[in-house]
Amino acid sequence: MNSTTSAALAAPCPPAPGRVRARLASLGLRLKELGTATLPPLIGLALILGAWQFLCSQPGASLPPPTKVLTDTWALIADPFFDRGGVDKGLFWHLSASLKRVALGFTLSAIAGVALGVLIGQSAVAYRALDPIFQVLRTVPPLAWLPISLAAFRNADPSAIFVIFITSIWPIILNTAVGIRNIPEDYRNVARVLRLSPAEYFLRIMMPATVPYIFTGLKIGIGLSWLAIVAAEMLIGGVGIGFFIWDAWNSSLMSEIILALVYVGLVGFMLDRLISWIGQRVARA
Q1: Phi, then psi, of 56 in degrees rounded to 5
Q2: For the segment 194-216, what is each residue's pLDDT rounded down to a tens digit?
Q3: DSSP for the chain?
């Protein structure tokens, strides 16, 4: 066999025309899906920013346009980690302090909410005894709990955590209870036939059947937690994104308030998606 023949045999075969067309069609479909998912939000955002820029650039406008917000707050955006002591910190530290309070308060409300939801979902007596109380308490506005919590704990941090707890626990309780009551009777009959222990019934029947309801309650609860902490921190002071907004308002720094609102919205969106992601993973397990 000569060298020319060997080189021809070693060279990779070109892909078949049909395979190339299939790859191009797949690539085109992915680009179309990407464009369908991203273009409408980008166009909507551009329209809102354009309208905001036009309206707030007029003489006598009381709010800054987006270009001025960007210019005024560029130092905060570029260096979110500065710490000059006290409450003079970058946005990273304010958001971290708020997220720590939310994490603690929401974790406590998730544990207590699921336990109470299981109780009133399983027991008709507990449901009749507790549900009217829950229905009344869940209508109390979050900040109405703050004076009571300050009087009880005499400290700002536990008071804010209690406000988060008491604000977010109701949807978790009620959704968990609905999930328990909606467990199909066939599942209960199978558990009786198999003589499952309470622990086995909880793990094999109750939890898989109620996971969508529980995580619906958790999604509502995390959103309420984030709303409550921002409002509570405006009143209790200290490091936190709520206090940052209130401090900027007292200093008439509207651009910093708008920047903080953008961060609050983005963090709230990410918390919502995080709970959804965890719920999907748990449902598949």
Answers
A1: -85, 0
A2: 888 888 888 888 888 888 999 99
A3: --HHHHHHHHSPPPPPHHHHHHHHHHHHHHHHHHHHHHHHHHHHHHHHHHHHHHHHTSTT-SS--HHHHHHHTHHHHH-TT-B-STT-B-HHHHHHHHHHHHHHHHHHHHHHHHHHHHHHHH-HHHHHHHHHHHHHHTTS-GGGGHHHHHHHH-SHHHHHHHHHHHHHHHHHHHHHHHHHHTS-HHHHHHHHHHT--HHHHIIIIIHHHHHHHHHHHHHHHHHHHHHHHHHHHHHH-SSSHHHHHHHHHHTT-HHHHHHHHHHHHHHHHHHHHHHHHHHHHHHH-
Q: Are 257 and 249 in contact (CB under 8 A)?
A: yes
pTM: 0.81
Which amino acid is present at 44?
G
Strand partners, 83: 89
What separation in angstroms does the CA of 94 have from each of 82, 88, 239? 11, 10, 5
Top pLDDT among 2 and 82 is at: 82
